[in-house]
Amino acid sequence: MGTVEHIGHGAGRISGDLGHLIPSPRPRVRPPAPPQKDPVRTAVRTFGEVLITLGMVVLLFVVYEVYWTDVVSAGKQRDATSALDDNWKAKTDDPERQDHFQGLGEGDGFAKMYIPAFGADFHFTIVEGTTAESLEIGPGHYTHTAYPGEVGNFSVAGHRVGKGAPFNDINLISSCDAIVVETRNNWFVYRALPQEEEKPGWAEGKGREARCKGVSVLGGPYQDVVGQQVVLPTNGSVVAPVPGSDTVPSAGEQVALMTLTTCHPRFSDKERLIVHSVLVKQWQKDPAKPDWTPPELKETV
């Protein structure tokens, strides 16, 4: 056993045989060899990471298309409605209080549309034109078709998903449901035509309901026109004066129709969903009663 011999003032040294107390050197440990890469596993991992990335991109696109574009379009719709209200409040020199639609520019609002069956809060300002920019504002009028209340086919397009989605639920419109259009001077009430399967026995069946007054199975050149149909996007004849036909009806045969068009099915533009309705009533606005609204607006469910 070793001893400590003092040197000077407290310093010392160790002497003696430490023997087995001297530690032996540690053996060198070789690091493990890196595992060999499995090319199959690497490829699967890489593919999985790519799929996750693509999934995130798709998810972000869906959020943008379905939700963010709704927010943007809602703002544009509010602006269009505000501009239209201001225009209607402006003084006019027309003593006959007739609606005029001349001079409308692309994206200009000129009427409002209500579908009472969708609730009291369903209303959109209709703008002129069906360009992508116009349809971001709201339902757009096919410029070569009739205007509200006119004979012919007043035709309006609208998005079904995103960008406000004004026509998201038009597949739920049933025969005789009211589609009310408000202009500066008038309220026009259109009602959806009978479905194909409802045409036989219409007059003796649903056609006898009070709200179906004025709605009938059309004849003559309009005999093939029904409440709803699905067509290819290339079928532009659905907004013709006689939908689905190039027939020019005589003055005595002309009918005032309204046609709504949108993509079908949802999230796809593979086809078009079409809703046809017929004008059944016109209410002229009374300047002395600016807050009056037609009773058809109360037909909510």
Please write the string of helix (H) and strand (E) elements: EEHEEHEEEEEEE
Label the structural class: alpha+beta
Architecture per CATH nomenclature, i.e. the level-2 architecture: Beta Barrel
Give the name of the CATH superfamily.
Sortase
Strand order of the largest sheet: 3-4-5-6-10-11-8-7
Ends apart, CA distance between termini? 104 Å
* Rg computed from alpha carbons, rounded to a whole number of angstroms: 37 Å
Poorly predicted ranges (pLDDT <50, ≥5 residues)? 1-15
Separate helix tally: 2
Summed over residues and divided by their number, the pLDDT gives a mean of 87
Helix content: 10-25%
**CATH topology-level name:** Sortase, Chain: A
> In percent, how much strand structure appears in the residues?
15-25%
Largest sheet data: 8 strands, mixed, barrel
Number of strands: 11
> What is the global morphology?
elongated
CATH class: Mainly Beta
Question: What is the strand and helix layout of this fold?
Answer:
Elements (H helix, E strand, L loop, with lengths): L2 E5 L3 E5 L23 H51 L19 E6 L8 E6 L3 H4 L4 E2 L10 E6 L20 E5 L3 E7 L35 E4 L24 E9 L6 E14 L17
Parallel strand pairs: 4-5, 6-10
Antiparallel strand pairs: 1-2, 3-4, 3-7, 5-6, 7-8, 8-11, 9-11, 10-11
